Amino acid sequence: EIVLTQSPGTLSLSPGERATLSCRASQSVSSTYLAWYQQKPGQAPRLLIYGASSGATGIPDRFSGSGSGTDFTLTISRLEPEDFAVYYCQQYGSSLWTFGQGTKVEIK
Amino acid sequence: QLQLQESGPGLVKPSETLSLTCTVSGGSISSSDYYWGWIRQPPGKGLEWIGTIYYSGNTYYNPSLKSRVTILLGTSKNHFSLKLSSVTAADTAVYYCARGRGGWFDPWGQGTLVTVSS
Predict the structure, then answer these.
(1) Which of A67, A80, A69 is nearest to A19 (CA)?
(2) Using one digit for the tens of pLDDT, what is the confidence trace for B70-113?
């Protein structure tokens, strides 16, 4: 089973700053099957990025994904007030789906 | 626009079976382009994949839950279901259903809190 480790656990930033979130896999993941989600308190997760770098429908272009193999990154170019939330990476492989433990982006 | 809605008891006693239904509207559960999944989130914690079912009826479960989980399609009524047996307090969580494609889940239902307590 592939384990995803996200870092940092918490990221304290100000609106307008750039956020860089990391997701590291315990073994190689196909880029096709790496996704990122945003979750706000009391809400269901929302798909942001699929295929490691493709933006989901309606997602602002300040959100971008990159990476391959075991190292993937979600970047928020300029934080808006509504971007402060928890972010999860997720992978699929060998008929198993796993999530990272999440990174909380909080207002500094 | 596809929507998913979880339903079922909000309180289950220890050792009993948790049963939830996900009703899909705005699209067909019988499409071979998609699959359907259950994911849960204990209070204050992260997301845990429970299992997935395909149009064919093939199922895949989280190894840590496999012995207790059953996911079924209800094709005639456009819904699918989750059963989790022998529950304990550790199974207290918000349970989400979601549509899958490729390797990701989108969209998700709003989630339903299930508490395991006597």
Answers:
(1) A80
(2) 999 986 779 999 999 999 999 999 999 999 999 999 999 999 99
* Measured distance CA(B101)–CA(A41) in Å, rounded: 25
Query: Which residues of A fall within a CB distance of 8 Å from B52?
Result: 95, 97
CB A91 within 8 A of CB A100: no
Cβ under 8 Å to B: A residues 30-89:
30, 32-35, 37, 43-47, 50-51, 56, 88
For A101, nearest residue in chain B (alpha carbons): B46
- Give the pLDDT band (50/70/90) at residue B9: very high
- Show Cβ contacts of residue B52 under 8 Å, excluding neighbours closer than 6 positions: A95, A97, B35, B36, B37, B38, B59, B60, B61, B71, B100
Is residue A102 predicted with pLDDT exceeding 70? yes
Phi (first) and psi of residue A33, to 5 degrees = -115, 30
Instruction: Quote the minimal CA–CA distance from B81 to chain A in Å.
Output: 19
